[in-house]
Amino acid sequence: MILLTGATGKTGFALAQRLSRQGTPFRVNLRNSEQANRFSGMGCDIVVGDLTKPQARRQALAGVEQVCLILANFEGQQATEQAIIQEAAEQGVQRVVKLSSIEAHPDIKARIPQSHFQVEQSLKASGLDYCMVRPNFFMQNLLANMPSIQQNGSFSYPAAGARTAMIDIEDVADFMAAVLQDRSLRDQSFDISGPEILSFEQVATTIGQQLGREVAFQACSAKDLEDKLKGYLDPWQTEAVVELLSDLVLDQSARLSDDFEAVLKRPPRSLQEFVAGSPAFN
Ligand SMILES: NC(=O)c1ccc[n+]([C@@H]2O[C@H](COP(=O)([O-])OP(=O)(O)OC[C@H]3O[C@@H](n4cnc5c(N)ncnc54)[C@H](OP(=O)(O)O)[C@@H]3O)[C@@H](O)[C@H]2O)c1
């Protein structure tokens, strides 16, 4: 039995669909029972609970062999993931597959990848088998720019000159499903990226070609982005996202990796394929 956390989220739901198609026994943890109908017909166990709470962690992990650890970025993410790992070790779980970040390394200052790095360290020290799946920037992040693209023909990040090798979440889910299936993969870290390093100007051109209109990337200030996010995110998340996007200028996401193709024996999808296949751009 695999416990899938974050199953209602973007990556988690895509992964649940794959596990269901494979006929892999799995359990999803939901915070809100009203989300349960999204999983009807998938043949999975459903448990409801807030994983910041010890009782919910115990209940979710009972009888589980593997955990697929995916959680949202929030102030308690690091502590919650570390508590899940500790509980997993106590309950005799064999392997944890963690969704981390390609930017998670000891010198990173931005709090989100820093917290992924700390969780990776805890997982490595736990004695559990592990696989770290460390994706680059998600192509789906671009969808949040659609209102601005529709209204102004442009989008902006505080990231002048930045480049990324962004990856499609559908590929992240394919990759995680393959890793969960292959129990011979243990104590490994996989950096997964898309097939090309692109500047945001090139991203804008690709989106514009798909939409049939001119789209521009305009670098903004960190303060501009902060003002924009304030209405949607809590103060911790606002600061965390601003610092993450501002750090793109450090070019740490301008990195290609062969790990995706080595496991899946096919190249990851390009941005052009992503926008061509996404209803938001059609
Ligand atoms: N965006 C990127 O470019 C990028 C790149 C690399 C790595 N990542 C990492 O990917 C992860 C996010 O993946 P995603 O975008 O697929 O996630 P997402 O769509 O934000 O979904 C997050 C999931 O976490 C669940 N959750 C949050 N708090 C919870 C709690 N206390 N108890 C139980 N469940 C809880 C949410 O449940 P509810 O539905 O109840 O809210 C939801 O299912 C983050 O760790 C991020 O750092 C992102």
Automatic annotation (TrEMBL):
<feature type="domain" description="NmrA-like">
    <location>
        <begin position="2"/>
        <end position="227"/>
    </location>
</feature>
<dbReference type="Pfam" id="PF05368">
    <property type="entry name" value="NmrA"/>
</dbReference>
<protein>
    <submittedName>
        <fullName>NAD(P)-dependent oxidoreductase</fullName>
    </submittedName>
</protein>
<dbReference type="InterPro" id="IPR036291">
    <property type="entry name" value="NAD(P)-bd_dom_sf"/>
</dbReference>
<dbReference type="InterPro" id="IPR051604">
    <property type="entry name" value="Ergot_Alk_Oxidoreductase"/>
</dbReference>
<dbReference type="InterPro" id="IPR008030">
    <property type="entry name" value="NmrA-like"/>
</dbReference>
